[in-house]
Amino acid sequence: MSQTHLFFNTGIGRKKPNSIRDKEQSCPFCEREKLTDILAVDGSIILLKNKYPVLENTYQTVLIETDDCHGELSIYPEDHLIKLIRFGLTHWLEMSESKQYQSVIFFKNHGPLSGGSIAHPHMQIIGLHEINYEDKVQASDFEGVTIHEKNGTVFTISTAPRVGFYEFNVKLEDIDDLTAFSKYIQTAAHYILNNFPFYCNSYNLFFYQLNGDIYAKIVPRFITTPLFIGYFIPQVPNNIEWMKEDIREHYFG
């Protein structure tokens, strides 16, 4: 039977560097010659074991997205963007298909409200030995108003968000054609950081497998609403249709 909680090792957590909070701290991901336990490399993209595995009973890896400490997914050139998403999906699915874990999570933190600690662009792929994340995911989490669609890959705004307010979803049609999937993810991130109707400097990107399909969810991060913290009650904004049109105007002509 799957467990419901992860245990966080505070002893390891206290040792972790935090270049988001401490701007004077040197970046461990920029010192590439000092990186250890490297698992795979594709140009400037590196997958390695997490040096600070704070989550007990898991296998934690870090995916360094680029050698540019000031880079950001929302502005990557298309060729690097697609290479990055393909690299990440490949290793995530390989870990999932290894059957060594109850489930494998793949996500990205960006910004001071995202829950991350290192500013250098990176993602994480974590094998969970006792938790199946799919137990807490349902198809309605990815239903929404369609912003754009290309070659069967669909970009939407949630009408039943998991946490509340604005959540962007991308459903992948063909894993051999990641162009639209990658560009829609990038569009959501760029919109959140640059054209969102409220100032926002943080987001999370999550990947899911559900019923044979692959989804991405991009979530702008603010202070989490107390209704969700206290009661797990998500709220749905009344301007979803307006935001759909605003994104179309900014990015799809």
From TrEMBL:
Organism: Cytobacillus citreus
Domain named DUF4931: residues: 8-131, 135-252
Database matches in SUPFAM superfamilies: HIT-like (SSF54197)
Designated name of the protein: DUF4931 domain-containing protein
Domain of life according to the entry: Bacteria
